[in-house]
């Protein structure tokens, strides 16, 4: 457990370092002979070089500063090109950049291409100043060699790059290039203008090394992936709209465990994808942003992954606003997930949030309106340490499952064996679960220490409001549940919170109030179940031993209800079902009606 805690803390610290280290390098220089890559920064002291994990060479402050006297102007004239640089070769409408420098492009090409073939130590800047480039049989921008290339989208300009539906490969064996912007070296897309990419053959952007994106407006239509950075993909800012037949954002280096990650500092992004919306071979690290993610493939007829957010190793989200509609899991990690905050609106054909190992939610607002299982950890602990939740599931609301035979050991050697049991830790601010399967399910233990948890459980006798294998220990918080009685369980007698359970002889109709008050008329709970039920569970610090209580069903309540729970109800009595006095931690009553 200590190893896992250290791993998560180190991940958060590393993410904080990356986020600080990759703040946008914006130049503030008012001199006449210097062009700026974007608007001036409020505080230049915040500008730092790219972090060492990206080889330390991909991004430097000096990359974004150049002298206007050194800019090589290239005019595109439909089928011809006008230029005067010794470092530019023109063959018809194919432009080849052969050396370091800053090159500005304006105009249009009906069927042409920009090729960068410079030395491995050369920095090349391509300034797009209102271009419209079509290339019918290859990539409109093809970067064959350089140390790194920065494509700058000039402020107040709109630029469009469009490829054809078939390519004549320059490298037949590797089938390259294969994207509207294709790079064999580190690539940065940057600037305050607008860039439109139409990838009619394959990807819209594909860097075989690292890729940094910081463009004011980016609009992408791609037959396959929208934006792919093989070693890493870093989104620093901008408004991005992607329609992709494959994945929206992707990093997929599977040969180096330090690569294949996606980091997002802030973004306003809308993705509609035929595969995953955002997919990383290793880690996904999100600092902030607004995300509208849709995966619209059909998992019934394809092996294609159709998840909203998917990481192969770890996922850490600090905050953001997420609207996710997914054909599979909305948020998924093959190993661990840590959600530190944010607002989430999720509709998933499979799980709402799923981690194969530990899943930790520290705070945030989560509305899961459709899911198979709402939140699931298959071979690790599920910890809810805060936040508000409204979960609808066709199976279990929360599920901590014992992993299969191949789940033991955990990533990097940490974790528990496949025969170990795991724990559901509950301390939300507020949680409401509406489940057709088990409301709260742990194939290990449950520990509840705080918060208000409401469970509208199953109507079928094969599932229960609660389902746990080992123990349910409640030391704080309030639990309210209604559902079937066939698999009925309650918090265990080792809890420090008192609990009462009522089982009706006949099924009660949805909307039938359950109300407990003291014999002196002090209200404890008024709850209106959303579905038919036979059992009602109530455990609360307000429920004391040695005090006489009355339990009513039916009647009416005025006031504000949240998921059936009235926090300030005025109750009009229905049928008095039971007058009772608790003498032990957990007490159950079989009712006559």
- Helical amount: under 10%
What's the number of helices? 1
Average pLDDT number: 89
Global geometry: elongated
Uncertain residue ranges: 1-53, 404-418
Largest sheet: 30 strands, mixed
Structural class: mainly beta
From the alpha carbons, calculate the radius of gyration and give it in angstroms.
29 Å
Number of strands: 56
Terminal CA distance reads 48 Å
Question: Could you tell me the strand content as a percent range?
Answer: over 45%
Summed up:
With 593 residues, the chain is mainly beta. It is 3% helix and 49% strand. The strands form six sheets. It has a 30-stranded mixed beta sheet that branches. It has a 16-stranded mixed beta sheet with strand order 5-6-8-10-13-15-17-19-22-25-28-31-34-37-40-43, with no helix packed on it. Strands 48-47-50-55 form a four-stranded antiparallel beta sheet, with no helix packed on it.
